[in-house]
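Ops channel
N.P.: pipeline sanity check, posting one input/output pair.
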């Protein structure tokens, strides 16, 4: 057992002294108390990661979730958006918030945050547009607003297979909302 401890210590020490990432392999590195071994994540990334952790800790999709944890995650996402409005993750935070609000059946806020997702980053995937349109259409009864967003989402599709299930649904709803076909029961 003592022999194993010595081997582990030698291996650990060699990783510290030599380094273990590819670009530094074979180079000797002096490690001192003033040289940090781990670079801390930025405050923005840490706050975002904490919100994601809380959201994931709340439970899997489509199963009963811990709503208290979801509300804590919403609070962290709000803090993140307020403190770091220029972050490249702001649209991701908005999309995640929208999903939480949708789960909580707060459809007004769900739509708001799905819309913020693509307002803050126009290059964001079109699924945020489809989800905003769907909620406006089926949960809030705002059919004219939904029609506009369905059409916008369909115009953003760049590949024939992109978000296929949403495309098929949106195309059908556009036809129904414009009176081209009768709504399906």
């Amino acid at each position: 057992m003592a022999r194993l401890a010595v081997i582990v210590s030698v291996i650990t020490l060699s990783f510290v002294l030599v380094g273990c990432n590819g670009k530094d392999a074979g180079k000797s590195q002096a490690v001192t108390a003033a040289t940090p071994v781990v670079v801390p994540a930025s405050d923005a990334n840490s706050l975002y990661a904490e919100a994601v952790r809380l959201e994931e800790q709340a439970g899997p999709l489509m199963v009963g979730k811990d709503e208290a944890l979801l509300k804590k995650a919403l609070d962290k996402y709000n803090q993140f958006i307020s403190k770091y409005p220029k972050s490249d993750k702001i649209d991701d935070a908005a999309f995640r918030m929208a999903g939480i609000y949708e789960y909580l059946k707060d459809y007004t806020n769900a739509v708001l945050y799905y819309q913020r997702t693509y307002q803050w980053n126009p290059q964001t995937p079109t699924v945020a547009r489809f989800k905003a349109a769907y909620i406006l259409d089926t949960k809030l009864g705002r059919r004219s607003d939904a029609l506009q967003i369905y059409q916008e989402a369909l115009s953003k599709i760049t590949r024939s297979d992109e978000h296929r299930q949403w495309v098929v649904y949106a195309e059908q709803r556009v036809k129904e909302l414009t009176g081209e076909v009768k709504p399906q029961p």
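N.P.: looks fine end to end. Confidence is low (pLDDT under 50) at residues 1-41.
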